[in-house]
């Protein structure tokens, strides 16, 4: 029995790496989005308008990146992540699967955000985030901690403060 040699097909990531220099080579990438060299963008990812993605990034399947987000170099974005508009992610960061980052949030470089973590809008992440954490504020901290601090500040602000009055003893 004679068998013909089996032809090797390229994987999706290999195809993306070779096609990354061609504008809009992935059907779900908006034409105004820019990406650096050697980016691997899964075919199921949706990249919005005016998004900038740095060199050597990996964007896994079913990722949504809204308009005007900026992704630094060497960033890995896991499966099923949502990155809302005007987010900045600095270089060499890792977003594990199912991460949600709210609008106008910032992620410092060399940060790992754990699976299922949620970052509120306008927050600034400067440290690693554990899985399933919900963070808010600048600097980003757990939502319960932030709520306690906010309530304490509100209570302090509502208290009347006794201010000594001058008794009219002008010298």
In short:
This protein is 14% helix and 22% strand. With 171 residues, the chain is of the alpha/beta class.
Question: Helix and strand layout, with pairings?
Answer:
Blueprint: H1 12-19, E1 34-35, E2 40-41, E3 46-47, E4 52-53, E5 58-59, E6 64-65, E7 70-71, E8 76-77, E9 82-83, E10 88-89, E11 94-95, E12 100-101, E13 106-107, E14 112-113, E15 118-119, E16 124-125, E17 134-136, E18 141-142, H2 143-158
Parallel strand pairs: 1-4, 2-5, 3-6, 4-7, 5-8, 6-9, 7-10, 8-11, 9-12, 10-13, 11-14, 12-15, 13-16, 15-17
Antiparallel strand pairs: 17-18
Structure report:
With 171 residues, this protein is an alpha/beta fold. The protein contains two helices and 18 strands. It has a seven-stranded mixed sheet. A hairpin with a 4-residue loop joins β17 and β18. The radius of gyration is 24 Å and the shape is elongated. The protein starts with 11 loop residues before the first helix and ends in a 13-residue tail after the last helix. Residues 6-10 and 15-27 have low confidence and may be disordered.
